[in-house]
Each structure stands twice: as C-alpha cells, then as structure tokens.
Amino acid sequence: xxxxxxxxxxxxxxxxxxxxxxxxxxxxxxxxxxxxxxxxxxxxxxxxxxxxxxxxxxxxxxxxxxxxxxxxxxxxxxxxxxxxxxxxxxxxxxxxxxxxxxxxxxxxxxxxxxxxxxxxxxxxxxxxxxxxxxxxxxxxxxxxxxxxxxxxxxxxxxxxxxxxxxxxxxxxxxxxxxxxxxxxxxxxxxxxxxxxxxxxxxxxxxxxxxxxxxxxxxxxxxxxxxxxxxxxxxxxxxxxxxxxxxxxxxxxxxxxxxxxxxxxxxxxxxxxxxxxxxxxxxxxxxxxxxxxxxxxxxxxxxxxxxxxxxxxxxxxxxxxxxxxxxxxxxxxxxxxxxxxxxxxxxxxxxxxxxxxxxxxxxxxxxxxxxxxxxxxxxxxxxxxxxxxxxxxxx
Length: 394
Hints:
Layout: H1 3-11, E1 31-37, E2 47-48, H2 53-58, E3 75-76, E4 82-83, H3 88-96, E5 100-107, H4 115-124, H5 137-145, E6 151-154, H6 183-192, H7 199-224, E7 228-229, H8 230-246, E8 250-256, H9 270-289, E9 296-302, E10 322-327, E11 335-336, E12 358-359, H10 360-372, H11 376-382
Parallel strand pairs: 1-8, 1-9, 5-11, 5-12, 6-8, 7-8
Antiparallel strand pairs: 2-4, 3-4, 5-10, 9-10
Helix pairs in contact: 5-11, 8-9
C-alpha cells in the first residue's frame, strides 16, 4: 500500500486514543486478531450438531435444517457438524479452503452465566481462584513479546484485555444501530383502529410490544458494552486489515448484538443476519490483507454459549459452553478441533448447556506458543496456572 493511501485510510477513521503513538511492526512478526462477540452467541445454530436428533427435538422452531442441498439446509462439515447456511459463501468457502477451524465445547470455568462477570474473567485471563482487573491477558502478552507485535484495540475505550499495558492505542469504530421499535409505524397502526372495537386491545398490544422491545433492547445494549454491531464490523473490516497490514500485529475488536433471548430465528432471522455480516466482514478482512493473510490468525469467541433448548420466546438464554472459530491463510484448518462429545441430553451440563471441554486459556496459550515460539515460562506469565493445549492449528 502506498503511503498516501494509508494516510487516507487513517483520515476516514476516528482519532486514536491514548496518544495513539504509531509503532513500527517487525516484518517477520505474525498477526493476531481477537474478535469478541459480546452477548453470548448461540453456537448451536452456527456449528450445528445435525447428527443429533436431540438438537431437533430441543429446537422445534429455531433449529437449522440438516444438510440437504437446499438454501435453508446447513452446510455439511463432517459426520457430526454442519455450518449455518448463511455462512456458506463466506466462512464455508474459507473452511473448504482449509482456512477455518472450529473448536466446540470451548469456554471458561465461570458458571455465573453473567455477561459482565464472564466477559471480565475471560479478558483478565486469570485462574478461578485469582481476581483482579489490573491487567488483561493481551497486555501481558504484549509484555512477553516486548515490541514484536505492536498492539491496537478497535474499541471506544481500552478493553480490559489490554489493561495494564503501556502505550496501547484504541480506535473507536462504533456506530449507532437502528432503533428496536419504529414509533411512526406504531402511530399509523393506532390510528387505523381508532374508534373501532379493536382500539383498546391494539393500543394495549402496541404498548406491550414497545415495553418488551425496550426491556430486551436495554439488556442487549448492556451486554454489548459499547461494542459495534455486526454490520458496522462488515463495513469497517477492510480498514482494520489495512491498519494491521501496515503497522499493527496484535488487535482486539468486540462486536455486539448476540444476546438472542427472543425471536432468534434459524436459517433466517436475527441471528442469521448478524452471522451474515460477521462472515462478510471476516472475508473482507482476509481479502484486504492479501498475501499477508498467510501470516495472520483470527480467533472469534464469546463469553459463553446459550441454552441448548429454545425458550418460550423462540430464543435462547444464557448458557455455558461455546464454539470458537480460528481463521488464517496459513493454518492447518478445515476441521473441527479439540475435545468433543456426541451431542445428546446426557452430555449437557446441568441438563441445559454445552459443557466446556476446551478451556479458553489453554486454547489461546497453545496458539500463542505456536505463533511466537513462547516457552512454558512465558505462557505462565500470560495465563497463570494454565497448561497450553496444542491443537496444531498453527
């Protein structure tokens, strides 16, 4: 990229925070981007256990159809798992090119099912018996790497994962999403039924819908913690790639909108729309890196998964085990990695959630060891009391 083009890219984006000092990136250093989905995304409707009859019994309204060649049918990955059809052209194509792997049954020891507590615990990266928010695991990684991977956070404020670091810039990409409820439509409907015998029930119903939308919209906004939505990520992904291609090697971005308590949808709907934008953004990020995609690893994770069974609002509630995505142009992918069990009722945690069989600290420690050649002592500084899990993806 020419210097003028790079400076033009910077000019289109908000100002860098924390003084925004520009770092020079070593040419030989790999890149790592962590994409954090705030709100707890429903991994069971992304990485679909289509071989399990229990999945279809548990989700009569929101299950994604088995792979059958149709538009709404899932994309078969292996004998157990399939991919949400809305991701077929983006993540599915990358999986076929062996540039994506999935790690199901992944997560943390935290069983609180609280967005805030679990997000904080993950970003701190400490063992369950240690608490403190003075430093995050990405900041500690920066310290271990000692300048080998210039960092940046694509967030409004420096995230907890980078707290405790030195001269780490943050770049705000947040945009305001559409309102959860259209007041103009409400006024039109109320006027249509004014004076009729349906005036009272319609008015009451509209008020109730408005209250419910506000309640769940407020909860989702809190779970998002200021993160951009998936559409904004899709629109800004090329800019992120340009910055990481030219200068930065260690990035963090959070994407909100995954707290799907109501009307989640299956092959189509709320979750599918978010996934489509996320997949588009990740594809654009990879494409904009060009040949440097071969030296880049992206991990997509969330604070937790969701309940395996759908709830009474055709959504899902806070769960435990999740599924992580690992992407890169030079990784050993095109497979489902990590410890697994067949999905049926007996394999659920507390008869409600996916269990955690692949601890996030171990998974990330294994990736970091491979990416930067870190030894056990260095990994101990990043993730105390954790044993690296080498999935041989890098």
